[in-house]
Design a protein that fits this description.
The protein is 34% helix and 25% strand. By secondary structure, the chain is α+β, with helices and mostly antiparallel strands. The strands form two sheets. Strands 2, 3, 4, 5, 6 and 9 form a six-stranded antiparallel β-sheet that branches. It has a five-stranded antiparallel β-sheet with strand order 1-11-10-7-8. The longest helix is centred in the N-terminal third of the chain and has 28 residues.
C-alpha cells in the first residue's frame, strides 16, 4: 500500500474528535406522573493517565484523561413504583458503567475480525446487573419488584454495539432513512411475532406496556447488536414516554430538520408533551460531523 493509499484508509476510519461529536440528552417527568423513574447517561471511556511519581508541580502535571477509547450512551426506564423504579434505573446505569469500563480493553485486545468475545462481555455485563438487582430486591423487602429497561449504545469507532433489554428504543438515521435498531421486548411484540396480534392493534392493548424482559425482573434476555458507524449517522435512544406519543414519521422529520442534538431533543420532548405526556420522557440524540460540516 502506498503512502497516499494508507492516508486515505486512515482518514476513512479515524475516530471523530470530541469537537466532531454533537450529542445531548434530557429527561422529563411528563405531564401526568409526579416522579421521574427514567435515567440517562452520556460519557466517554478513556485511557487514564495515572501519575505515580513526577518532579512536576501538581498544577503542571497532565490533566488530560487520555485517549478516548469509546463513547457510551444509555437510557433506563425504571418500573415497580416511583421509588423502586427510580432506584432500579439509577443502579443499572451506575453498575453497567463499571462493568463496561472493566471490559473495554477486551475490545482492543481482541482479534479485529472476531469481536464475539467482546459482544459476549457486554451481554454478561447486562446479566450481571440483572443479578445484582435481583439480589438487592431479595435482601430488602422495600425493593421488591424493582426493575428497569436498559438501552445501551457503545461506540468504538468504526464499530458500535447496542445492548438492549426492555422497550426503550434505539433508532438510526442514515442517508435520510430512519431504522429502529432495537426490538421491543414486550408481550405485545411477542404476540405480533406469533401472528396473534396485529401491529395496528398493539399500541392500544394492555400488552403494550407489559415487558417480556427487563433488568431485575422475572426474565432478562439481553440482545447485543453489532453495527458499523459512518460519518453523518444520527442515533436516538429514548424511553417509551416518547414513542407512545410521537410516531416514527415525526421522529424522522425532526432528525431530518435538526440543527443540533440539543434542539432536536427539545423539539421531540415538546412533541411528546403536546400529545399528552402521559409518561416519563427521556431522549438522547447524537451524531458525528466532520470538522467544517
Amino acid at each position: 500500500m502506498t503512502t497516499s493509499e494508507s492516508q486515505i484508509v486512515q482518514g476513512a476510519v479515524r475516530k471523530p474528535r470530541d469537537s466532531e461529536i454533537d450529542v445531548f440528552g434530557l429527561t422529563h417527568p411528563g405531564k401526568v406522573r409526579k416522579s421521574n423513574q427514567d435515567h440517562f447517561l452520556i460519557c466517554s471511556l478513556n485511557r487514564r493517565v495515572d501519575i505515580h511519581f513526577s518532579s512536576l508541580p501538581e498544577k503542571a502535571q497532565p490533566a488530560d484523561p487520555g485517549q478516548r477509547l469509546a463513547f457510551l450512551a444509555m437510557v433506563a426506564d425504571g418500573v415497580g413504583g416511583s421509588a423502586m423504579g427510580e432506584e432500579a434505573s439509577r443502579e443499572a446505569l451506575q453498575r453497567i458503567t463499571r462493568y463496561i469500563t472493566g471490559s473495554i480493553d477486551c475490545y482492543y485486545t481482541a482479534d479485529s475480525a472476531d469481536d464475539s468475545a467482546f459482544a459476549n462481555a457486554l451481554e454478561q455485563a447486562a446479566m450481571q446487573v440483572h443479578t445484582d438487582l435481583i439480589e438487592a430486591s431479595q435482601a430488602d423487602a422495600d425493593r421488591r419488584g424493582m426493575a428497569t429497561t436498559l438501552t445501551l449504545w457503545l461506540g468504538a469507532w468504526p464499530r458500535a454495539y447496542l445492548v438492549h433489554v426492555g422497550d426503550s428504543r434505539c433508532y438510526l438515521m442514515r442517508d435520510g432513512q430512519l431504522t429502529q435498531i432495537s426490538r421491543d421486548q414486550t408481550m405485545a411484540q411477542e404476540l405480533i411475532d406469533l401472528g396473534v396480534l396485529k401491529r395496528s392493534d398493539a399500541a392500544g392493548s394492555r400488552w403494550a406496556s407489559m415487558l417480556s424482559s427487563s433488568i431485575g425482573g422475572s426474565q432478562s434476555a439481553p440482545v447485543v447488536t453489532r453495527m458499523d458507524q459512518q460519518w453523518g449517522d444520527v442515533g436516538v435512544l429514548c424511553s417509551d414516554g416518547l414513542t407512545r406519543h410521537v410516531p416514527d414519521e415525526r421522529i424522522k422529520e425532526r432528525l431530518a430538520a435538526m440543527t443540533s442534538s440539543r434542539q432536536t431533543c427539545e423539539a421531540l420532548l415538546q412533541d411528546a408533551l403536546d400529545a399528552g405526556g402521559g409518561d416519563n420522557i427521556t431522549i438522547v440524540v447524537g451524531r458525528t460531523l466532520r470538522g467544517g460540516d
